[in-house]
Every structure is written in C-alpha cells, then in structure tokens.
Amino acid sequence: MNLRLLNAIKREEEGGPALGGSLIGGGGAPVSTPSFRFSNGTLTRTAGSALNTGRQLQSRFGDLFASVRPGFGKLSETTRQTFRDRSAAAVGNLRESLGRRRVLGASFASDALARVKLGFAREEAQELAKVGVQETQLQNQILRDQSQALTQQISSELQEFSIAANFSQSLNELELKRLELDEELGDFRDLTVVG
Fold first, then answer.
1. What is the pLDDT of residue 175?
2. In angstroms, what CA-CA distances link 140 with 57, 61, 69, 143?
3. How many alpha carbons fall within 13 Å on the CB side of residue 116?
4. Which of 179, 70, 67, 85 lies closest to 128, judged by CA?
5. Number of neighbours of residue 18 by Cβ within 10 angstroms
6. Is 169 within 8 Å of 176 (Cβ atoms)?
7. Beta bridge partners of 32
8. How far apart are CA 195 and CA 2, in angstroms?
9. Strand (E) positions, the chain?
10. How far is residue 150's CA from residue 121's CA, in Å, rounded to a whole number?
C-alpha cells in the first residue's frame, strides 16, 4: 500500500485535510503583491503602489519641468527680478545724485537716466538669453531623467508581473496535482471499501 495515501487517509480521519486541502480558493488566502493579486486561480492587476508610484513620478517631473520653462521658469524670473532691482537702485541713485546737483530736469540728465536704463535692459536681455539656454538644457535633462525613471518603473512592473505569472502558474500546477492526488485517493478508498 502507498504510504503517502495511507497518511492522507489518516489525516482525513483525524479531521485535517487529506492532501493539504485546497491551495487555491476553498478558504485559501489570496496572494498579493503591490500590483497583482492571485485568488481562486486568477491573476488580476490591482491599483497598487507601483502604479501610484508611476503617477507620482509623472506629477513630480511635470512640476519640475514647468519650473524650468525657458523664459518663464524660476531661473528666468529670478534673473529678471535681480536686474530690475539693480536697475531701479542704479536709476534711483543717479536721480538722487542729479537732484543734489540741481540738474535733474536738464536734457543730459534725462539722457544719462535713459542710458543707465538701456544698459541694464541690454545686460538683462543677454543674461536672460543665457538663462534660457540653461533652462532648455535643464528641461532636456528632466526629460531624460523622466524617461529613465519611467523605463525603470515599467521594467520593475514587468518583472513583478513575470514573478506573479510564474507563481500563478506554479499554484495552478500544484492545484491540478492536488486534484489528481485527491482523485487517486478516492479511487484508493473505493478499492479498500470494495476489497
């Protein structure tokens, strides 16, 4: 007589499962990963942390991308504000100096003020052009980083799916083997009852 079958019959008589009970369903707990769930022989995708992480990555990169828009990013705003503050201070100082000399209304005073403003505007435009190039480079780097991060995220999900699919297949194979053994056990019982 087969020792495994005798042990299975003994376990069943003691109230336990004959061959380990059902691996899937029938009271068995579902198996889950952050992105997949295996229950009752079915592998399903869940809205788990891997999917949320991908969305969070896109949101963060989108915010970062917007902050370096060429000509409108934070670097451009800071540069523009710095030059405008410096220009206002220089024009104010020149105006005060010309006022102390009592020549503020003269045409050469107006010309001097216009030249100072024009000089700062020219410097601001040159610096903003450099900053625009830097912001374009930053946007390109952000796009490369985003692409790499999303590629890694997708690769991670594909690996997790592969593991989950292999696990699912293994559990299904085990369940089929358990069903075959239960059938053999039933045939064996029939033989022992008849014989």
1. 80
2. 16, 12, 11, 5
3. 18
4. 70
5. 19
6. no
7. 37
8. 16
9. 31-32, 36-39, 42-45
10. 42
Note the pLDDT tens digit of each residue in 18-47: 444 444 444 456 666 666 676 766 767 776
**What confidence score (pLDDT) does residue 28 get?**
52
Per-residue pLDDT tens over the stretch 109-137:
889 999 999 999 999 999 999 999 999 99
At residue 16, does pLDDT exceed 60?
Answer: no
Maximum separation of any 2 CA atoms in the chain, in Å: 130
As a whole number, mean pLDDT of residues 73-99 equals 92
3-state DSSP percent of the chain in helix, strand and coil, to 5: 75, 5, 20
Distance, in Å, from the CA atom of 11 to the CA atom of 185, rounded to the nearest integer, reads 12
Q: Which residue has the tokens 């997790």?
A: 160
